[in-house]
Design a protein that fits this description.
This protein has eight helices and seven strands, in the order E-H-E-H-E-H-E-H-E-H-E-H-H-H-E. It folds into two domains: 211 residues, NAD(P)-binding Rossmann-like Domain (Rossmann fold); 37 residues, no CATH class. Helix 1 runs parallel beside helix 2, helix 1 crosses helix 8 and helix 4 runs parallel beside helix 5. By secondary structure, it is an alpha/beta fold. It binds nicotinamide-adenine-dinucleotide. The site of nicotinamide-adenine-dinucleotide (NAD) has 29 residues, from helix 1 and helix 6.
Length: 268
């Protein structure tokens, strides 16, 4: 095989900012972008977790910075992007991955919970997109990757707030793709199916951190049974989608929603 054929995935000399980098999909994505050669700014409200991811990247030979950032704070993402540019020289990839889940039926959904999920999962992504787009537009190149969810395709009880925020992220992605395409900047989203992370693990993890292994296996088995590929996702499965969209391998792809979901939803 011609080794140059994989060069489109090479991120050497590129700079990536990843929010949600302390855990799960964000952490796996930060590590894979670093392994592909990017310098990575690992951002998360969990500053110790972000530092741990950055330290892991450095041990693996990548350049990495850690930043404690709450995506709901006005101006925080502008400052994050500015720091990436001032400390690492440029910005090429913005991966808006930080997210939370709040589950309640609509009849019980409190305003506070609704505001919180919109602040993180929608406004945080909007602000991350806007901050990055300003820099990337002037630069004339770059890729923005937003994290959506299979909840955009499959309505499930309790996921009104989460699903609304993720569906709005999809529309933000599509609109921004039309605005940024003429400037050489691509904007895409990833809509994963069930991935075992801290977010989904809360279903079978007690407050003291102990995991109910029987319940965990029952949940994973039930999800796998209802998935055509008969398995659940790993953070790395989603990181591979992020790398594809971040890299030149997807140079002709914008405004798209990539669905690493085991086949649970297959929209046209
Ligand atoms: N796990 C799944 O099955 C699944 C499926 C579809 C989509 N997603 C999405 O993938 C993304 C990552 O989820 P995950 O499963 O890895 O969860 P996770 O809980 O492991 O990671 C989420 C990260 O986001 C960070 N975060 C939360 N609020 C923040 C804030 N205000 N500012 C900065 N950082 C903040 C958390 O500290 C955490 O490190 C989320 O957007 C989630 O909605 C997850």
């Amino acid at each position: 095989m011609n080794p140059d054929a994989l060069g489109a995935f090479d991120l050497s000399g590129r700079v990536a900012v990843v929010t949600g980098a302390a855990s799960g999909i964000g952490r796996a994505s930060a590590e894979l972008l670093g392994a592909a050669g990017a310098a990575v700014v690992c951002a998360d409200v969990d500053d110790q977790g972000a530092a741990a991811t950055a330290a892991q990247l450095e041990r693996a030979g990548a350049r990495a910075l850690a930043r404690g950032v709450d995506v709901t704070v006005p101006g925080a993402l502008d400052a994050l992007v500015e720091q990436a540019v001032s400390e690492l020289g440029r910005l090429d990839v913005m991966a808006n991955i930080a997210g939370i889940i709040v589950q309640a039926p609509v009849v019980d959904f409190e305003d506070d919970a609704f505001d919180r999920i919109m602040a993180v999962n929608l406004k945080g992504v909007f602000r991350g997109c806007r901050a990055a787009a300003r820099v990337l537009k002037a630069q004339g190149s770059g890729s923005i990757v937003n994290m959506a969810s299979a909840a955009i395709d499959t309505p499930s009880p309790g996921l009104a707030g989460y699903g609304m925020a993720k569906a709005a992220v999809v529309q933000l992605t599509r609109v921004l793709a039309t605005e940024m395409g003429p400037h050489g900047v691509r904007v895409n989203a990833v809509a994963p199916g069930f991935v075992e992370t801290a977010m989904t693990g809360r279903r079978f993890t007690a407050a003291d951190g102990t995991v109910d292994e029987t319940h965990r296996q029952a949940v994973l088995d039930a999800v796998a049974r209802s998935t055509p590929l008969r398995t659940v996702g790993r953070p790395q499965d989603i990181a591979h989608a992020v790398l594809y969209l971040a890299s030149d391998a997807s140079r002709f792809v914008t405004g798209q929603i990539l669905r690493p979901n085991g086949g649970v939803a297959m929209p046209w």
